[in-house]
Specification:
About 5% of the residues lie in helices and about 55% in strands. By secondary structure, it is mainly β. A hairpin with a 4-residue loop joins strand 15 and strand 16. The radius of gyration is 26 Å and the shape is globular. About 5% of the residues have low confidence.
Length: about 700
């Protein structure tokens, strides 16, 4: 694996910065030490991504779930999917090619517009480095008003760890039953005497071994190195400058998933990978950027930021073909070597105010953000070959993407201007409204849109809210006309896909506001999907494509998050969803999208026996899901039980935290995300042990 100077430099900075901060001269100040439980709460009171500001969840006319770092650490999560399982509104899709996909409220989350990092649109075509995250905000429903083109189900905003005033160093290591290892370092503190310069850094080295293995007996493995660094500088009492940089190197063998027959049963052995052992993906991701916060006066604040994300990936595929599978088990592989280069540049400018007009409080936001997108691809294809179980694995083809003399390029940019106002009329009533004007510049797919947003909130008391909201979203098509010359509607204009959501909900804080209960009913309609059918009229056309497709998702969600008392903490959610394609979707009319269950639920809990001992238990349920768009192949419902325990000890006056987790305690055999040609086989009972030393 290649490690860049950026990662190496981060390691040197992290190892030296802590001692530099500790060597500063003593100051004549009073030191107050506050000690609390190692086990933190599950509940937070606001989500910065939902309203692009510090608006409490109780004053947000939208369903939002915040998964805290406490839960991430307790579950020893190493992927975003292991974290998002704590919200029943999210379902896992395929995990082929060392990446994860998800749907939210039944709509797919796109890699290019379904994810945010600290409010920046983030290219998420890889497994996210969750060790850098403080919280994960799941923002439900269309969010195009504030972020531009996005899917109607919602967004996932990843909130990163920030620099601290107090110096600290956490070193951790974990090991699982297969021999996978992960070593982590998390450090922070002030770099000068007046604490105006502060940092936060993370280093992670992971080697993961999987249960599934290649047909030559080798097990699939993954090797990952992460380095991240954040620097805060107080330019003055009113101005904060933040610089961030991170790099992920992630190389893994390929597993494009298992295959199912018409009965929904796995074809062959559950542990067999149909890719060749020499197939791999090698990813290098870099993020570099800055943010500025300026408190203009007591009412107005200005924020601006920029991030440049570079994503380079080599993917050497054996590419086994499901469609070529014969009755005797032989299938064809179509190898190729491919290089992908994504460049993702984002910027934003927000002007916010907290002021009083006409006797009412206004939390006003006026802003603009944009994206500059570049994608280039090189690809060389090798000779196809047939393979069946028991055959000798063929040698790796002698091909290289570097021999491709052409470069396939896609470029576009878009930007939008938006406003939003949360008006407090009195102690009982609030209204929110806003809008966005958005422009996309892309050859053959220029697009402009204006979208409204509105909500009303009623607070019977200080601890509860009843709200109703209406939001719209949009997703431009890849072109603005039908480009297939063999289609009967060749040259027809295509509009952007649009979505609308009506939502009614309740939020209620209990137990001295330590527990937040939520309930929401939603109705989402997505229109403008392209529907292609076989052409049966006169002429030589092969297909006829119409832009009339509709998708409607209706359902409700229930959630609970926080502590019942000083010892018992829970995070629970339930979703019921009725999702189907509209009557104008041809042969798919009335069908349910792939991997969308009618019922799903999750529960994670912690019980603190003492200040040093705690136990965890989790239950995760997902109902029946279809594995094909024709709704003929069903993946059965499953319930998985996880347990864990934490022990905090003192060894030679050094605090040490031990954790032992068991996932899939009952060794449940089930199918996770993915369709019939790339389904993820769930692992059996697994064990993970971790130790953490905070200094």
């Amino acid at each position: 694996m290649k490690y860049s100077p950026l990662v190496i430099a981060m390691g040197l900075i992290f190892s030296s910065a802590n001692s530099f901060a500790d060597d500063k001269p003593a100051q004549n100040i009073e030191v107050i030490e506050v000690k609390g439980s190692y086990f933190n709460n599950y509940k937070v009171d606001d989500a910065s991504g939902a309203m692009r500001g510090d608006v409490p969840l109780i004053e947000t006319a939208q369903s939002v779930t915040v998964i805290t770092n406490t839960i991430i650490v307790e579950q020893l999560a190493t992927t975003l999917g292991e974290v998002l399982q704590n919200d029943a509104s999210l379902s896992a899709g395929s995990r082929q090619r060392n990446r994860e996909t998800f749907s939210i409220r039944g709509f797919d989350l796109s890699s290019d517009n379904g994810y945010l990092r600290d409010g920046h649109q983030h290219w998420s075509h890889y497994q996210q480095p969750i060790e850098t995250l403080e919280n994960i905000e799941v923002i439900k429903g269309p969010s195009s008003i504030l972020y531009g083109q996005s899917a109607p189900g919602g967004l996932v905003n990843m909130v990163t760890k920030k620099p601290t005033y107090n110096s600290f160093l956490n070193v951790g290591a974990d090991l699982d039953h297969l021999g996978s290892t992960r070593f982590t370092l998390d450090a922070g503190g002030a770099l000068n005497n007046d604490e105006s310069l502060r940092y936060r850094g993370n280093l992670v080295k992971q080697n993961e071994i999987y249960e599934r293995e290649y047909q030559n007996g080798e097990q699939r493995q993954r090797d990952r190195l992460l380095g991240s660094f954040v620097l805060d500088y107080d330019v003055s009492d009113n101005v904060l400058l933040r610089f961030h940089a991170d790099q992920t190197n992630d190389k893994a063998g390929l597993d494009t998933g298992a295959w199912l027959d018409v009965n929904g049963d796995v074809i062959g052995d559950n542990k067999t990978i149909r890719d060749m052992s020499w197939a791999f993906t090698d990813i290098t991701v870099q993020n570099i950027g800055f943010d500025v916060e300026y408190a203009i006066n007591g009412q107005w604040d200005l924020k601006l930021g920029y991030n440049q994300q570079s994503f380079e990936r080599q993917r050497f595929e054996s590419a086994p073909s499901y469609k070529s599978l014969s009755e005797d088990g032989t299938y064809t592989s179509n190898p190729y070597d491919r290089f992908d280069d994504w460049q993702f540049k984002t910027a934003y400018l927000d002007l916010s105010a907290d002021l009083t007009l006409a006797g009412m409080n206004h939390q006003l936001l006026i802003g603009a953000n944009g994206l500059d997108y570049y994608y280039g691809q090189l690809k060389v294809t090798g000779e196809s070959f047939d393979f069946s179980n028991g055959d000798m694995e063929p040698n790796m083809p002698n091909i290289s993407y570097q021999d491709d003399t052409s470069l396939a390029v896609t470029e576009y940019n878009y930007y939008g201007m938006y406003f939003q106002d949360l008006v407090t009329i009195n102690d009982y009533w609030q209204v929110s409204f806003g809008g966005r004007y958005d422009v996309q510049n892309k050859d053959g797919a220029d697009n402009t849109s204006f979208l409204p947003k509105a909500g009303v909130l009623f607070h019977p008391n200080d601890s509860s809210t009843i709200y109703a909201s209406y939001t719209e979203g949009f997703e431009p098509q890849s072109t603005d006309i039908i480009i297939d010359e063999e289609d009967a509607n060749y040259g027809m204009d295509i509009d952007a896909m649009t979505s609308k959501q009506f939502e009614v909900g309740v939020k209620w804080q209990l137990f001295d506001e330590r527990m937040l209960l939520t309930a929401a009913v939603f109705d989402i309609t997505k229109e403008g999907m392209l529907v292609s059918e076989e052409y049966t009229g006169s002429g030589d056309y092969q297909t006829i494509t119409r832009q009339a497709g509709e998708q409607r998702h209706q359902g409700f969600e229930l959630g609970a998050q926080g502590s019942i008392n000083d010892r018992l903490f829970i995070m629970a959610s339930v979703m019921n969803l009725d999702a189907e394609y509209g009557q104008d979707n041809g042969e798919f009319s009335g069908n349910t999208p792939v991997d969308v269950p009618k019922w799903s639920a999750s529960l994670w809990s912690r019980y603190e026996v003492s200040e040093s001992i705690a136990f965890n238990a989790g239950v995760f349920y997902e109902g029946d899901r279809y594995a094909d768009i024709n709704n003929t192949i069903v993946k059965d419902a499953y319930t998985r039980i996880d347990v864990g325990a934490t022990y905090q000890a003192s060894i030679n006056n050094q605090e040490v935290n031990f954790r032992f987790n068991v996932q899939n305690l009952l060794d449940k055999d089930y199918l996770a995300g993915g369709d019939y040609s790339n389904v993820t086989i769930a692992e059996g009972v697994s064990y993970r042990f971790a130790v953490q030393l905070p200094f």
